[in-house]
Amino acid sequence: MDKKLTTEEEYREALQRFLEILEKEDGDYDVLELFGLMKQLELYEQENCL
Prior knowledge:
Blueprint: H1 8-22, H2 31-48
Helix pairs in contact: 1-2
């Protein structure tokens, strides 16, 4: 999950996955995946949304 997001489509897919993880009722998710997605989303937003 260290791949840099380069398109709006990749950003939206990563955001969707991030939200899917947070919505899991059992709380059973990969913390490393969650933090990796957060890092990717934040970097994309810094580079493309300011």
